[in-house]
Design brief:
Layout: H1 6-17, H2 20-30, H3 35-62, H4 65-75, H5 80-114
Length: 115
């Protein structure tokens, strides 16, 4: 995911506050057989994660996105488009987490070094 712009982060925050994450996860859960719903929900989750930073990524994960995404990818094995967007979402989530953990490790190392 690219670093979020401040105005983009604010837009995503409004979507999240309005229940956007729950709406996406619920749509994927309630319409498992509908490929179009799955694709659009994946893209929506990707945009929220890309634009919201670590807090939103954490909420997506805690909200059950990974489980329902994997379920969707298994259900729609033959659809290359869903496999692609599912991988994009998973890669983006893992990159955001890795980036955040790397920043935390750097802070810890710097504070240890200063002591």
């Amino acid at each position: 995911f690219a670093p979020p712009q401040e105005d983009q982060k604010e837009r995503v925050a409004k979507i999240v506050e309005a229940g956007g994450i729950d709406a996406v996860v619920s749509a994927m859960h309630n319409h498992r057989t509908n490929l179009n719903v799955q694709l659009q929900a994946c893209w929506a989750a990707s945009r929220m994660g890309m634009g919201g930073g670590l807090d939103v990524v954490s909420l997506l994960i805690l909200g059950g996105l990974i489980e329902i995404l994997v379920d969707s990818m298994m259900h729609h094995r033959e659809d290359v488009g869903l496999q692609f967007v599912g991988c994009v979402v998973l890669r983006g989530l893992s990159e955001e987490l890795e980036k955040s953990l790397g920043a935390t490790k750097k802070k810890d190392s710097a504070s240890t070094y200063r002591r």
